[in-house]
Amino acid sequence: MRSYHLDSFDGTGFVLREHDVPEPGPGQVLVRVRAASFNKRDRLIVEGRYPLPPRAGVVALSDGAGEVAATGEGVTRFGVGDRVVGSYWNRWHGGRLDASMIDQLGCTHDGMLTEYALLDEGALAAVPAHLTWAEAATLPCAGVTAWTSITGGAALPDGATVVTLGTGGVSLYAVQIAKALGYRVIATTSSPEKAERVRELGADGVVNYRDTPQWSAGVRELTGGLGADLIVDTAGPDTVAESIRASSLYGQVVLLATQSETRADVTVPGAAWAQTMAEIRRVFVGSRSDLEDLGKLVESAAIRPLVDRVFGFGEITEAYAHYVSGTAFGKVVVEI
C-alpha cells in the first residue's frame, strides 16, 4: 500500500511511502480509501502553523471515504463492503469534547491520504447512499463544521436568516445546510461571478464585500434593518466586528478562526457589541455523532456537496497547489 506522509512542517509537502497492508486488531476496521479532500487545517499543518502539534511522519489529511476491507475481532458497527467516512476527531464520539479526545486524523493520528486506513470502528460513520466517493470525502471537516455552526447553539427561529462569508468549503456547505433546514441565506462574496454561483447554490441574497467593505450594512438592508440570526464567520478574527454589526438583537456569531495573517487576537468592538445581545460562539468541527446527523440531513435532503476538481493519487503536488491557489469553488479532492 502507498501513503503520503508529512515528515516536516515547513511547507515542503508530502512524502510517498510504501507499506504492508495492516491487519485490523480487536475493535479496528481496515478501510480501502477511495477519495480524500483538502481543508484549511491541512495547509496549516503542512506549513507548521497549526495549534495542535502534529506527529512527525503522520499520514496526511483528515477527510476521506472508502469501503470496509476487513474488520477485527468484536467489530459490530460495520461489515466488509460498507461505505464509510472517517470522523475528524477519531475519539470524540458525542457529547462534549474533553482532553482525553484530543486526537485528530492527519495530525496526531494517521489520516486518509493513503490506500488503506486502519481506524477504530468508533471513528467511522456511514456514507449517504447517493454520494460519490469524491463527495463523501468532503463531509468530515467542512461539512461537520458548517453543520455544528448552524445547529450547535441555541435553536434558531423559524425562517431565520443565516449569513455566510466568502465561498470556502465551510461557507458553501453552510449555504446548502441552511437552505435544507428552511432558513434564509445571505452570502458575502467578492465578485459578480461568485455571486451568481452562490445564488445558484441557494443563497437568497448576496453582498459583495469588495464593493461594500462594511458588508454588515448590506446584511441589514436585506433584513429590513433587523440583522441576521446567525453569522457563520469563517474569515475571523478580521471580520468579527462586521459580523457583530450584522447580527440581530439576540443573534449568534459563530467564530471559526481565532487568528489570521494580520491578527493574532480576537478584538470585539465594544461600541458595536453594546448595541446587541449577540452571542459569540466557538466551533471546532464536531463529533462522530455530529457527522452522523449531518449524513442523515444530506441523505434526506439529497444534498450534493460541491466538488471543484478531482485529482489522481499521483497528482498530489498539483492537487495541493490548486488548493492553496484559492481559486477553487468547492472542494479539492484526490481519488485513490
Automatic annotation (TrEMBL):
PANTHER family in UniProt: PTHR45033, ZINC-TYPE ALCOHOL DEHYDROGENASE-LIKE PROTEIN C1773.06C (PTHR45033:SF2)
Organism name: Phytomonospora endophytica
GO molecular function annotations of the record: oxidoreductase activity
Regions annotated as coiled coil: none
A Pfam family this chain is assigned to: ADH_N
Domain spans labelled Enoyl reductase (ER): 7-334
Name of the protein in question: NADPH:quinone reductase-like Zn-dependent oxidoreductase
